[in-house]
Write a structure and sequence with these properties.
Blueprint lengths: L2 E6 L4 E8 L4 E8 L5 H5 L7 E5 L3 E2 L18 E3 L2 E2 L12 H7 L3 E4 L3 H11 L2 E6 L6 H10 L5 H5 L5 E3 L1 E4 L8 E6 L5 H8 L3 E6 L5 H6 L4 E4 L10 H11 L5 E4 L1 H9 L4 E17 L5 E12 L9 E7 L5 E6 L4 E4 L14 H13 L1
Parallel strand pairs: 3-4, 4-6, 5-7, 6-8, 12-13, 12-14, 14-15, 15-20
Antiparallel strand pairs: 1-2, 1-9, 2-8, 3-9, 10-13, 16-17, 16-18, 18-19, 19-20
The site of glutamine (GLN) has 12 residues, from strand 17.
């Protein structure tokens, strides 16, 4: 296998082997601590504009099961692993990670100490980096390029380009009778958000990120769901203006991750970039009403600033038990609830999937 190099903005260089396609990329380097679920990570649109390091040392051992994809393709700019299993062993497996990366035009590097890399990212914070197979790389040229690189325009890249409709039974959901209509605002949705709604008897209409709120409201959905998605939430100025209209429509809204951040920004709160984010399948979040702690799946680099939330507008619903950051908000006087973590899991624990049931109760109340 060809040599590959991961070069970080601070000048650190890791030497490993090239995996996936042989292509040079510059990207934001982030890490995910999940022990399983690499295909869900690779197909989560929220990773667009980032290269993901898996801290679990063996990746690819149970192969690729296409049904487990969370969207139509792989999104990260690059994939960084300690060891890539050459021969998957799993009765469901249809492919290898190497072939998946090739098919999705994703370059990567294996054979590096991903735990050492993670320690650097935890100490210094998320950094930009380059993956290259060029052995004659020149740090003096590369480091300034890495420093000036920023991720923009990624929501548009991952969102659907026209309205899509789903009914129960679609995308592997249960064929239950549908008695509700939910509008999903796709700012980078994972399939399981749609599936969780279908399983609960919702017909789902998915709108692209350049949706018109008046059109969504005029279609009289019972509820509105705003999804996860990539990039800096504060960049989505046009979407935030539309989200404000949805929030004021009196139609129940439930929002996840990027959706949660956009809703907060629509109410004059602020978001900021965390030092190294939360990406993994074991983040504890506490419901402030019940005191109950749930283990959640997470993937975010930005967070809503707790200090900027006006108590007359919203109150904290969940907090992160590790660092105290806001993990959910309930809006005052509006049927709007939002969470920073992923109740749809995939990959990760399903402990908080009952939040979709709570959303169904909010919708029922609207009828
Ligand atoms: N999964 C998400 O929706 C991520 C939201 C946002 N892009 C962040 O990194 O914070």
């Amino acid at each position: 296998m060809k040599k590959a190099f991961l070069i970080l903005e601070d000048g650190t260089v890791f030497e490993g082997k090239s995996i996936g396609v042989d292509k040079e990329i510059i990207s934001e380097i982030v890490f995910n601590t999940s022990m399983t679920g690499y295909l869900e990570v690779l197909t989560d649109p929220s990773y667009a504009g980032q290269a993901v390091t898996m801290t679990y040392p063996l990746i690819g051992n149970y192969g690729i099961c296409y049904k487990d994809m969370e969207s139509k393709k792989g999104w990260p700019d690059g994939f960084i692993v300690r060891e890539l299993a050459r021969v998957p062993s799993n009765f469901r497996s249809e492919d290898t990670v190497q072939h998946f990366l090739e098919k999705n035009d994703i370059p990567g590097i294996s054979g590096i100490d991903t735990r050492a890399l993670t320690k650097i990212l935890r100490e210094k914070g998320t950094m930009n980096g380059m993956i290259t197979t060029n052995e004659n790389y020149n740090l003096d040229e590369i480091i300034p390029k890495l420093k000036e690189y920023t991720v923009t325009g990624v929501v548009k890249k991952v969102s659907c380009d026209k309205i899509e409709k789903y009914v129960p039974g679609d995308i592997g959901s249960e064929s239950v009778a549908a008695d509700k209509d939910v509008a999903v605002i796709d700012v980078g949705t994972k399939k399981n958000i749609i599936r969780c709604l279908l399983n609960r008897g919702c017909n789902v209409t998915v709108y692209p990120c350049d949706f018109d709120a008046d059109e969504v409201i005029a279609s009289k959905p019972d509820g509105i769901m705003i999804t996860n998605g990539p990039g800096d939430p504060a960049e989505c100025v046009d979407i935030i203006a539309q989200v404000k209209k949805l929030a004021d429509s009196n139609i129940p809204v439930f929002a996840i991750c990027l959706g949660h951040q956009l809703m907060a920004l629509a109410h004059n709160a602020k978001t900021y970039k965390m030092k190294y984010g939360h990406r993994g399948a074991n983040h504890p979040v506490k419901n402030l009403e019940t005191g109950k702690v749930y283990i959640s799946s997470q993937n975010h680099g930005y967070v809503v600033d707790a200090d900027g939330i006006d108590a007359s507008v919203a109150k904290p619903w969940f907090v992160n038990v590790n660092d105290g950051t806001i993990e959910g908000l309930e809006y005052i006087g509006k049927p709007v609830k939002t969470v920073q973590f992923h109740p749809e899991a995939n990959a990760g624990p399903k402990d908080s999937e009952m939040l979709f049931d709570e959303f169904m109760k909010m919708i029922g109340g609207n009828k």
